[in-house]
Design brief:
This protein is α+β, with helices and mostly antiparallel strands and 438 residues long. The protein has four domains: 24-109, Alpha Horseshoe (Leucine-rich Repeat Variant); 114-190, 3-Layer(bab) Sandwich (Phage tail protein beta-alpha-beta fold), CATH 3.55.50; 200-309 and 425-436, Immunoglobulin-like (Sandwich), CATH 2.60.40; 311-420, Sandwich (Immunoglobulin-like), CATH 2.60.40. 17% of the residues lie in helices and 38% in strands.
């Protein structure tokens, strides 16, 4: 079970498409299009529903609010901004709709991405379509680029990401190369596996057995131990910031019905995560099994991982007067506490606060300093910051002073702070089966 600790925005995200949007998932090999999802609406229909929020009849206002909420998080960008001219009841209804849709969007982020793709397509097209549907980048290793034109026959209807990838890999005789460096993406390479134990998959995570070794020290009275090396892999759209595994929860059972506990039951190590990678290795030591045992029929455990949600752009306008501005999305509140010119630069003091940071700001604060903060000017011109420094620091928030060189009127620019909208701690119980012993 997933444990969602906080209020819960690269998955299919279950965001309904607006009418008129289309991808390969709606086409068969013959080019036929499936029936449209009933939970869709055109932009014109959405505008009419928003106007209906101010209808004379209460029943009409209630119906419009209900329908807009049913349409899902895909309409968030179509909701009007709330300002000083927004009427009292309209403001309340828009706040309720936005809160419900934000929660839906954030909740969906931590579930497995879904894939729908029917027909016969080149492998390169299949991988691009899966990236479009899920936000998960997948590439072929350099030695396997020749496979990009291989035709893949699929009949995938709303299946989980890893199930879809298994089907594609089986047809193309490929496997995930977990430690290949590819920024924010998975790499597929020619399969070399022979009789590998089955992988465990739950939601966006997968656990696979890499190797098993047993040791016995003759110079020590210690009984020896068996170490199972596993790899935890996640959908590339996720960006975990820390992972821990309580060794006391590791339990194994052999084919001789022998139960084995962890060889280090008091340990609770933090697992290093490679920036930009999608996998990490975990070494699980257990007691040495009897010489009669030929396999572990089951190895179970649990790891804890903190995962930032989908990113959201917090936007601040007309900041030249230095007035305080604040925007809340999901569990994160971003406040522009002040803006002023200081010699050749403009200083922007941004306070980022998490309602529940689940410890991710204590040991792994550096991830928040990598959030993209920039100015967007006329003609979509991007102006990057020229430096920053911390001015506030707590277990639930960080204050950062950004510096920009602005030539001209500052109010011609918008300040953009790009950040996850929440932090969630997930507990993933896993179970690996049929692991041969050395």
């Amino acid at each position: 079970m997933w444990l969602m600790v906080a209020f819960v925005a690269c998955s299919s995200l279950a965001i309904p498409k607006l009418a008129g949007q289309e991808s390969l998932q709606n086409k068969s090999v013959a080019g036929e299009t499936e029936q449209a999802d009933p939970e869709t609406a055109t932009e014109d229909e959405i505008r009419k529903l928003i106007s209906q929020l101010e209808a004379v009849r209460l029943a009409d206002r209630d119906a419009a609010e209900k329908r807009l909420t049913e349409l899902g998080a895909g309409i968030l960008s179509h909701l009007p901004e709330i300002n000083s001219r927004t009427g009292g009841e309209l403001k309340i209804r828009l706040q309720r709709i936005r809160a419900a849709l934000q929660t839906e969007k954030l909740d969906d982020f931590y579930e497995a991405s879904r894939v729908s793709l029917t027909g016969q397509f080149p492998l390169s097209t299949v991988l691009k379509e899966i990236e479009q549907q899920t936000g998960n980048k997948i590439t072929l290793s350099s030695q396997d680029n020749s496979l990009s034109s291989k035709m893949i026959q699929l009949n995938l209807k709303d299946v989980e990401f890893w199930q879809a990838l298994d089907e594609i890999a089986a047809q193309a005789k490929l496997q995930v190369q977990p430690f290949a460096y590819n920024l924010d993406g998975l790499v597929l390479t020619t399969s070399t596996r022979t009789n590998s134990p089955p992988a465990f998959t739950r939601g966006p995570f997968r656990v696979e057995t890499l190797s098993v070794s047993s040791t016995r020290a003759f110079s020590s009275s210690a009984p020896g131990q068996t170490e199972i090396s596993v790899v935890a892999i996640w959908e590339p759209r996720l960006k975990p910031v820390y992972m821990q595994i309580p060794m006391g929860k590791i339990v194994a059972k052999t084919d001789t019905d022998q139960e084995l506990a962890s060889a280090s039951p008091m340990a609770n190590p933090e697992i290093p995560l490679n920036t930009g990678g999608c996998a990490t290795q975990l070494d699980l030591p257990i007691a040495l099994p009897s010489s009669e045992a030929q396999a572990l029929v089951k190895l179970s455990g649990e790891f804890e991982v903190a995962v930032p949600s989908e990113r959201h752009e917090y936007v601040f306008k007309n900041f030249a007067n230095g007035a305080r501005q604040s925007e809340k999305f999901g569990d994160v509140t971003v406040t522009l506490e002040g803006a002023r010119r200081n010699g050749p630069v403009f200083e922007m003091r941004i306070l980022v606060e998490f309602g529940n940071a689940v410890g991710a700001l204590e040991s792994y604060r550096s991830w928040i300093l990598s959030n993209h903060t920039f100015l967007r000017g006329p003609n979509e011109r991007i102006l990057e910051n020229v430096g920053f420094n911390l001015y506030a620091n707590s277990s639930s928030g960080v204050g950062i002073n950004y510096l920009f060189q602005i030539n001209g009127d500052p109010d011609d620019f918008q300040l953009i702070y790009d950040s996850p909208a929440m932090m969630s701690r997930q507990n993933l119980a896993f179970e690996l089966l049929d692991i041969p012993l050395p």
